[in-house]
């Protein structure tokens, strides 16, 4: 099994952190064994989820009620997880929290002051953030103990997924081309544009008469590197070239020379040297990515089932 690091999961914590506020008991929404979930907590969680729902479109009363139900269920599951952490005596040391903070700063290219400033914009102090981070680490450790350690992805599962989703692992056609470039200044006069076009047309006739395209690029191209690389554009895929050039190249056959192509910088003559058809990435290349994908999918499914079973064994009462 590949190594699934704590740091990779914790990268999301900064973005997901929500402002902490003083708990105000405004009524009981639910009880979980001997613990209480207040209406205030449900309202706060609902408000956060509604912000996300509003990004997807108008929020109706029905959606609002669904969101509130989801918020309450989420809080119930969180309480059950916290109780299980205490039951199993899962502990995270201050040093582990410190290391996690350092890893997050490194991954996000942040200084300590930068992290503190970012937290303040979310209404969090650094100590509050560390407390949230500790909870996340405890949850990850619990999942590793109760869920992830019991998951395996077989070779057959990887092979079957690859066979069923092979189209997702294809490489685009690749093209290798040369060009001869005739520069047109940004503030060019009509006469300068005409002159560049005239020069380009004359060279185009030479290129199509069978003269060596690389030598023509060295001799006539206004590109400074042409003398060395003979106008070689290298190998590229769709989306990696100027749209004006790409649309022409895609329609060409190897060995063909294009018409004049006008771009904001000037005129181009293109010769397509090679065109490699699309091909599938070998299983060996994408095996790790597929294993990770299947592992995460199984983790989510198993964790959801685990929390469902946990809830069935608990005493949960939802208040009217």
TrEMBL record:
Secretion signal, residue range per the UniProt entry: 1-22
Record has tRNA processing as a keyword: no
Keywords: Coiled coil, Isomerase, Rotamase, Signal
Listed Gene3D superfamilies: 3.10.50.40, Porin chaperone SurA, peptide-binding domain (1.10.4030.10)
Keyword Protease: no
Record GO terms (molecular function): peptidyl-prolyl cis-trans isomerase activity
All copies of domain PpiC, residue ranges: 172-274
InterPro entries xrefs: OMP_Chaperone_SurA (IPR050280), PPIase_dom_sf (IPR046357), PPIase_PpiC (IPR000297), Trigger_fact/SurA_dom_sf (IPR027304)
A Pfam family the protein falls into: SurA_N_3
Coiled-coil region list: 78-150
The protein, known as: Periplasmic chaperone for outer membrane proteins SurA
